[in-house]
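tool=predict chain=A
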Amino acid sequence: MKILILGNMGYVGPSLVNQLRETYPDAVLIGYDIGYFAHCLSNASYLPETKLEKQIFGDIRNFPAELLEGVDAVVNLAGISNDPMGNKYEEVTLDINFRATVSLGKLAKDRGVKNFVFASSCSMYGLADDSPRKESDKLNPLTAYARSKVFAEEGLEPLAGDGFTVTCLRFATACGWSSRFRLDLVLNDFVAGALVNKRISILSDGTPWRPMINTKDMARALDWGVSREASNGGKFLAVNAGSNDWNNKIYKLAEATASVIPGVDISVNPNAPPDKRSYRANFDLFKKLAPNHQPKEDLLSTVNDIKANLVEIGFNDPNYRSSQYIRLKVLDRLQSKGILSSDLQWINTKGL
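tool=predict ok
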């Protein structure tokens, strides 16, 4: 088996590579990544890419079709990965997350790839009423990031057909430790704030709902998509990926963190404007279709794992929201050094 992973050098990629290597020990695994965050390693005992047969550096916007020769499955993790980056780079977000993804899907189908797996997002539900959102419910994307995921799904759906199975996994909000850790994610941020500042500052009133999923469980879901048969869910499938048990209000995430890290004050902003990104998601369909790839991690074990790794690396930066753990800050620094353009293209990196 030959599997191509795009965006493998980001937050989720290391967990996915581990998962696929375990599931397919004899498979040929190839990584393709532009390398924005390749240097952002965190408590890694080895370079995650050593588990690949090959690592290729490149931009999905200029993807070379010949790399798809003999590939059985494509997993696309490549993308502008959150709302702050999407807001600053709206057109780039659409180019990468939407247009380049659909173009890649067309190339993959033409080259005989059997399975195409796309990392989509539950954020496309936006502001929803109190009932958990099902896949058939109305979409309400509120940000450039969320819209890019909706457009990508719409562009991929007509490509699916005999011999080309498309799986769009609408992931809950990511969390958990990674060899390329991020702190621009709500639960990860709470743990860091609790450790170094003994304080969790919630920017809203704490009432918005947010489903969560650990990176390891994301990898399990992606693994399922790699081998999913069209008879199990259809030639095209957009499915919420996560667990009903992981639907929590933001304040509950803070309380769980404080239960693991004692002596922490939790503050909310009662005067904040309502956070429109509030929704629960229904994961019944995912549980039905992928019973052997269900989430195994829980909230408290995830908090404990993040804490343990941060303690192990001696994490003590009270200004971590300006550090390389924040993806937008990494892009800003690369631009300030004159090696990354305003449309996130490498300029001249020879000799660096």
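The radius of gyration is 19 Å. Residues 135 and 263 are 40 Å apart (CA to CA).
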